[in-house]
Design goal:
With 122 residues, this protein is mostly helical. It has one domain: DNA sulphur modification protein DndE (Arc Repressor Mutant, Orthogonal Bundle). It is 65% helix and 3% strand. The protein is built from 6 helices and 2 strands, in the order βααβαααα. It has a two-stranded antiparallel sheet. The radius of gyration is 13 Å and the shape is globular. 30% of the residues are buried.
């Protein structure tokens, strides 16, 4: 199983731009944080709430050599939510990144905020 390119919403694109300006972190790093943040939240995000008019993220760039780890995390969550990975992998990954970006922006104002997030998650 593999991801195709992931197209995030215009809102997520703007949020990533704002976070990049305040933290210096690139969109691929922010997308990984967003994905993990959303995967840890309760409830299933609704993919229809997020348009597909934003920037495109290539999985190879976003996940790099850790793509299999992120794939395992998403597959585990899909199974937990009772969704067939064959039908929902790309759509739900996109939804999780978008939902996570909103939550991430609310918690991150500068690069040092990521350290606090990591401690909270541990």
């Amino acid at each position: 199983m593999k991801w195709d390119s992931i197209r995030v919403s215009t809102r997520t694109t703007r949020l990533f731009g704002a976070m990049r300006a305040s933290t210096g972190m690139t969109s691929d790093v922010l997308a990984r944080f967003s994905l993990c943040l959303s995967l840890g939240q309760r409830g299933t995000p609704n993919p229809d709430e997020y348009n597909e008019d934003g920037s495109t993220l290539a999985p190879s760039e976003m996940f790099g050599g850790d793509e299999q780890i992120y794939m395992a995390l998403v597959l585990d969550r899909l199974r937990e939510d009772g969704l067939d990975p064959k039908d929902h992998l790309g759509r739900m990954t996109r939804a999780h990144i978008n939902r996570g970006a909103i939550g991430l922006r609310q918690r991150v104002g500068r690069a040092s905020d990521f350290e606090r997030l990591a401690r909270e998650a541990a």
